[in-house]
Amino acid sequence: MIPVLRVLEHLSYVIECAAMEYRGEAKYELGCLCTKIETDPLFDVSDASDAIQELHIAQEAFMREDPRAGASALARASRALWRAAAALDSRLQSASAPSDQI
């Protein structure tokens, strides 16, 4: 699985926890996700720096007990990651497209 999809999969669980108001679990899982992004090559989404920034904003919001701001930042991170996934898909499709040979 490509890193951006791994991150999106983990992020969907964090969003679910936040939606269910499992704040402790959401904070814990978000912390784990941020750590994985920073340390685990399987979660390397360095090309999606805007998403990483939003995840840190969400983490700060949840730590200060502001779940609305945290949820909003999680949604922005998700959208940024989906944009990164779409860009990667576009690059992969371009690379695999047959070239016109004359």
N to C succession of SSEs = HHHH
**Number of alpha- plus pi-helical segments:** 4
Q: What is the gyration radius calculated from CA atoms?
A: 16 Å
Tally of DSSP β-strands? 0
Question: How does this model look, in words?
Answer:
The mean pLDDT is 93. 77% of the residues lie in helices and 0% in strands.
What is the compact description of this entry?
The protein is about 75% helix and about 0% strand.
Helices and strands in order, then pairings?
Blueprint: H1 3-19, H2 23-39, H3 49-63, H4 67-96
Helix pairs in contact: 1-2, 1-4, 2-3, 3-4
Give keywords:
102 residues, mainly alpha, 4 helices, elongated
